[in-house]
């Protein structure tokens, strides 16, 4: 019947689940973090990416967690918090290794090298 709609078991059509709400919030935080980086406000960007990472971890979403970690690293780098930036860029690499998904690894290695250069350790 063409007028019928289907919903997953236990869910009414149009009913938003907590997971959907959290995913939307996470995506919004990632977008806001990027906006604040563009506006040269790395502290606000850090706060947005930190919350996005927290939500991604709750949802078990490693791809979005990598994006948040990458943003956290960039935010720290721009605040000259190089050791903290290295921690977040290394998190990107750890997630990649665990998930066997290498997107963003080249950038993470480059960012880590930049941090060590700034610290005078390279």
From TrEMBL:
SUPFAM superfamilies with a match to the protein in the record: TPR-like
Region (Disordered) residue spans: 1-23
Q: What is this protein's record name?
A: Chloroplast FLU-like protein
Q: Which PANTHER family match?
A: PROTEIN FLUORESCENT IN BLUE LIGHT, CHLOROPLASTIC
- Please name the gene that encodes this protein: Flp
**A GO biological process held by the record:** chlorophyll biosynthetic process
